[in-house]
From TrEMBL, chain A:
Residues 1-23 form the signal peptide. It is found in: Cell envelope. The keyword Electron transport does not apply. Residues 107-357 form the Periplasmic binding protein domain. Its main location: other. This is Periplasmic binding protein domain-containing protein. Keywords: Signal. Residues 27-52 are annotated as: Disordered. Belongs to the bacterial solute-binding protein 2 family.
Automatic annotation (TrEMBL), chain B:
CDD domains: TM_PBP1_transp_AraH_like. The chain crosses the membrane at residues 82-101, 113-133, 153-171, 203-227, 257-277, 283-301. This is Autoinducer 2 import system permease protein LsrD. It is a multi-pass membrane protein. It comes from Microbispora cellulosiformans. GO terms for cellular component: plasma membrane. It is found in: Cell membrane. The keyword Membrane applies.
Length: 407, 310
């Protein structure tokens, strides 16, 4: 009996230890705020608060304004080849890098650890294979490690590359490595940037603000005033994701919508589904779902289906599983993109530089959103569920098999 | 059962706390949804119980779950006919991984902490190599039904959980369960009294592998293919077992309490979520629980010592 009471004491002590964690943190500025039904725990909020919380410390007004302007701008270049198009180009001369072929291209890749990078990497390899003048292509995979990429870049600069393409793993840490490479070889940076203007060109889609704003504006347009929005984010503190959310916050703050929750999902489908189910249960009804990335959008949709509710307006990304769900379930949806066709552009840019042709200092690629009108164009039966529709790879040799699809 | 009582009291307390915040929680659909969500972890905890009570650890279950789901998606690739053969294959794969863990631990005498940590790394590395970080294929609708659908009002996963729980309780009450506890308590004494320690421990690892296969079937069904599906599950399962009052090092504890520990952990996560606390806190809470539970379990209060001596 006494040993039993000791165990009871242990268990009770545990409960005492863990429960206050829940109790005392509940008054933090949790983004679930006003508009919550009675009884739901939430921090107090000013009437004007849309429940979006503090603005991200990554938010830069000038960058935001620039991206909003680019969304409306008309890109120059062939419209059937968006990876060659550019918005607002400030052309720079590259005569100093001009040399005769054949060329040896080098590429320091941050990682190939997610479907987006997988699709992009295959696309880049296929683009390289298109150009006979590239006789050698050396690529090193940093496996998501800054330190490995720093040594990769150092190694590549000593290998007699004619041009070096870098997709940096992180911005700040890789800056010195890129600065070190610039005097030795023309450097082309894409995807994430670096904090130096020494690369010949920096290639990127419009950016994170444009992604977040496109999704949020769609919800503001489709969800009736006062509607409850659930925002799902992967992780806090990652610049490319923070910009997406901060632009959405700006849009929601100006709207009549109520953001009842901003939750982190770790990009995990089961967790996403659980979080959405919890919100449906807690609020009875969710009127719109905003996501900072599309990988778990299908899980979010399924949470509504399993709860027996109509799926509210939602955004995903250009992955096939979401586009298929959108089409099959006739969702009200939008898919802003961060196009994988940007992996073609660095190869094209490298060849331009080596031929002494002008390139934009910052090569802004168009960043279209998939809408109901053009959904059918991007839905590609036979492609794997995690394939990204905006790969720009359909005209490349080996499509669709090389990308895991069947024709 | 007496030893298991505290965890049930804590669990009841947490359920009441959830119900206070969300009165709808105790209605059948919401409660069943909770049980459905907890089912994979409860099954994993039951499997982990057999390994822990026999005096070992199984750290490989999380990456085994991931490997199972990724392999299933690749092999099924959306085809209905492939569903049942692949399900059988998943069960077999779970048993084989358990067998390897068991044989390496008992016959080669590699500590199970190392064996299963190695298995964790091998499986996650192999999955990454095979998929390159992007799982291919898709699970069929039939497969998804097990984790997603329901028979009338009762989700399939709840029914599967009930069967697993009954089997687990039966196994611990059978001769096998007693020899397992004896092996965990004092393996030399158990061996001297005729228990084939290596064999029962190997079977325990196989049960754990089997539980990972079942959990993978439910998790894959619940949310579909993902390369992160099993991330951290091994620690959640061990936390749940420890929370249920099962002694690390073996020899003491009940499987019912271990499963209640899993429900408690899931209830705690639900409560944290209801209070709007970020999921980032979950690992921290788990850490506090695992240290506190082991520490409190190890503390010997004077009165308790007197009772033990008497």
């Amino acid at each position: 009996m006494l040993s039993y009471s000791r165990r009871f004491l242990a268990a009770a002590a545990l409960a005492v230890l863990t429960l206050p964690v829940a109790a005392c943190t509940s008054d933090k500025p949790a983004p679930s705020a006003s508009g919550a039904p009675a009884g739901a725990p939430a921090g107090s909020a000013a009437p004007a608060d849309k429940g979006t919380g503090e603005q991200s410390k990554f938010f830069v007004q000038a960058d935001y304004d620039a991206q909003m302007a680019m969304r409306k701008a008309q890109p120059t270049g062939p419209s059937d080849k968006p990876w060659e198009q550019t918005i607002d180009p400030q052309l720079v001369d590259t005569a100093e890098y001009k040399k005769a072929g054949p060329y040896h291209l080098c590429f320091s890749n941050a990682a190939v650890d997610n479907p987006w990078r997988q699709v992009g990497w295959k696309t880049m390899q296929a683009e390289v294979a298109l150009h006979k003048e590239i006789t050698k292509f050396t690529a090193l995979d940093a496996e998501g490690k800054d330190d490995k990429q720093i040594s990769d870049i150092a190694e590549l600069t000593g290998k007699g590359c004619d041009a070096l393409i870098v997709s940096p793993n992180t911005t700040a840490t890789l800056t010195p490595a890129v600065s070190g490479a610039c005097p030795k070889v023309p450097v082309i940076v894409f995807d994430r940037g670096v904090q130096t203007d020494c690369p010949v060109t920096f290639i990127k889609p419009i950016g994170g603000y444009a992604f977040g704003a496109a999704a949020a504006e769609f919800l503001v347009d489709k969800v009736p005033a006062g509607g409850k929005i659930l925002a799902l984010r992967i992780l806090p503190g990652v610049d490319v994701l923070e910009t997406r959310w901060s632009a959405a916050k700006v849009a929601f703050d100006k709207s009549d919508l109520q953001v009842v929750g901003v939750e982190f999902t770790d990009g995990d489908a089961a967790k996403t589904k659980s979080v959405v189910s919890d919100y449906i249960q807690r609020y009875g009804k969710i009127d719109g779902v905003w996501m900072d990335a599309g990988a778990t959008a299908v899980a979010a949709v399924e949470a509504f289906e399993d709860a027996g509710q109509p799926v509210p307006p939602i955004n995903g990304e250009d992955q096939q599983d979401f586009l298929k769900k959108w089409s099959d379930a006739k969702l009200t949806a939008i898919a802003p993109t961060y196009p994988t066709y940007q992996w073609r552009t660095p190869v094209i840019a490298a060849l331009k530089v080596l031929k002494g042709e002008q390139v934009p200092k910052v090569w802004n690629l168009p960043q279209p959103a998939i809408t109901q009108e053009n959904l059918a164009t991007y839905l590609k039966p036979g492609m794997p569920p995690l394939h990204y529709a905006l790969c720009g790879c359909e005209d490349l040799p080996g499509y669709p098999e090389k990308w895991g699809g069947t024709s | 059962m007496r030893r298991a009582l505290p965890i049930f009291v804590v669990l009841a307390g947490l359920l009441v706390a959830i119900a206070v915040v969300n009165p709808y929680f105790l209605e059948p659909p919401a409660f069943l949804a909770f049980v459905k969500r907890a089912a994979p972890l409860v099954i994993l905890a039951a499997g982990q119980y057999f390994v822990i009570v026999s005096g070992e650890f199984d750290l490989s279950v999380g990456s085994l779950v991931t490997a199972e789901v990724v392999i299933a998606a690749r092999l099924i690739d959306g085809s209905a006919e492939a569903t049942w053969p692949v399900l059988a294959l998943m069960i077999a794969f779970g048993l084989i991984v358990g067998l390897v863990n068991g044989v390496v631990t008992t016959l080669l005498r590699v500590p199970s902490f190392i064996t299963t940590l190695g298995m964790l790394l091998i499986l996650s590395g192999a999955v990454f190599l095979w998929t390159g970080g992007s799982p291919r294929g898709a699970l069929s609708e039939q497969f998804r039904q097990l984790g997603r659908g329901s028979l009338g009002p009762v989700p399939w996963s709840v029914l599967i959980l009930a069967v697993v729980a009954a089997a687990a309780v039966w196994a611990t009450r059978a001769r096998f369960g007693h020899t397992l506890v004896a092996a965990g308590d004092n393996d030399r004494a158990a061996a001297l009294s005729g228990v084939r320690v290596a064999r029962v421990r190997t079977v325990a690892f196989m049960i754990s592998g089997l539980s990972a296969a079942v959990a993978a079937i439910l998790l894959g069904g619940f949310a579909g293919v993902s390369a992160q599906v099993g991330k951290g599950l091994e620690f959640q399962a061990i936390t749940a077992v420890v929370l249920g009052g099962v002694a690390l090092g073996g020899g003491r504890g009940s499987v019912a309490a271990a499963m209640a520990g899993a429900f408690t952990l899931e209830a705690l996560f639900t409560l944290l979520n209801l209070y709007g606390i970020s999921g980032a806190l979950e690992p921290a809470v788990q850490g506090v629980i695992i240290i506190a539970a082991v520490a409190l379990g190890a503390v010997r209060f004077p009165r308790a010592r007197a009772a033990a001596a008497s």
